[in-house]
Amino acid sequence: MAPILRISNLKKTYKGGFEALKGVDLDIREGEILALLGPNGAGKTTLISTICGITVPTSGSVTVNGFDTLTQYRQARAMIGLVPQEINLEPFEKVINTVALTRGLFGKRRDDALLERILRRLSLWDKKDSRIRELSGGMKRRVLIAKALSHEPRVLFLDEPTAGVDVDLRKDMWNIVSELKAEGVTVILTTHYIEEAEAISDRVGVISEGRLLLVEEKNALMARMGRKQLTIELREKIAAVPPGLTDLDLELAGDGMSLVYTYDTQKERTGITALLAALSREGITLRDLSTRQSSLEEIFVGLVKEGAA
Amino acid sequence: MTLRAIWAIYRYEMTRFFRTLLQSFVSPVISTSLYFVVFGTAIGSRIQQVEGVSYGAFIVPGLIMLSVIMQSISNASFGIYFPKFIGTVYELLSAPVSFLEIVAGYVGAAATKALFIGVVILGTASLFVDLTIAHPFAMVAFLVLTCISFSLLGFIIGLWAGNFEQLQLVPLLIVTPLVFLGGSFYSISMLPEIWQKITLFNPVVYLISGFRWAFFDMADVPVGISLVAIAGFTALCLAIVWWIFRTGWRLRD
Question: Which UniProt keywords apply (chain A) (predicted)?
Fold first, then answer.
């Protein structure tokens, strides 16, 4: 199946000479949720702005469902909804008017029933006649989402949708994203919250200093990069790792009350059986065992460091 | 070109106007009345007639033009500058519309507001002086064209402006002097000969002259030249706006 969004060798150099995008290639499949992770200034917002027509690319191309975003911008943009990172809303306007404006701008017939459905879903219906300035920060963010959904986009960009949002609203936002996915909408979101990418995305792209370091299925990424740690709590304190065990990747922790064994889950032999046998040979008695998988965050930090090196 | 997009922008801009309808209505009524008191009474008591028209009536076309030009510029420049200032311009840039729809929506709304003000002033003026309109269709045409062309100029100023001071700069430093020196309150024939020549470089002269012709069938410059001048000015503004959107100047990084 042809990708819904194809980015080819996209470059952007700002007037001051700052290279925000250094040649990005990316295919996005219809109906997937892609999380773009990256530190501040990595180029996430520039990438989105360039796709949506807010920034002009220096070179390269973007197509949406086969339509070029520069030469066939009407067809391309009609399919895209954008939720910007900043809360850009006219403070004196009513919620319903600003949402209706977006639908109109996209050339769609006025559809009150649809707007009501969108506002209800975002818990904004009872605020529809409120002025934007009367709303809380979280509500304003919902209004931005309502505007983006008002013209029924097939591709939705969420630029840091949960920055500065409380836990409840963040969970709500995640639910909305999975509902959209169920309807077949492709969602691309940027975030620095790793747990967000981990919780809702299908694929993860890591961007740093204008380059896409990788794009991979989230689960595959976690499995590939995922190191696991086995923590062995001991019944009695030991002063050092016993000489018979020094070949293994073992570390002494907890003031000598525990041993930490790091291993790769993808390997055929994890070495756990041998480790446990060796411990019993050395006469060490165990109190408890626990394992922990490294999070996407640790993977991400590792990747960005590697990319910088 | 999608009419729905134009209509969406137009409607949105007009709601802002209706929110402040009272101010929009009251301020031109008061300022027109003041002009009549100051100019009509003070100067009118010394100049009884200009080329057969009472001074009070003579200044009406100029007064309307003065307000309509200033209103067109301020409405349109604010209309597009405000979204740039608060950041909502992202929506225009990412919507599937060309510059034509955006211009038609914003300039259409700004021109409508200015036209409304022009009509209010005309109504107020008719309370003070007896007015006859010799060429009503031409009068409406001149009024509408002026609203549109100066709204286009305002739109350009709004796109160009990087802050609120710049937004005021062009109207204050260029447009106000041109309008006051464009024969709003006097006939060019009343000027010394050398100034009669110099003043012909002021584009506003052609506008006011044409507009006054529509009222009193008398003009400083032939009405055909007035029409060509205003059409040329409109075309020039349109070309500049087209260039701005094509290059993204001050709009897109």
Answer: ATP-binding, Nucleotide-binding, Transport
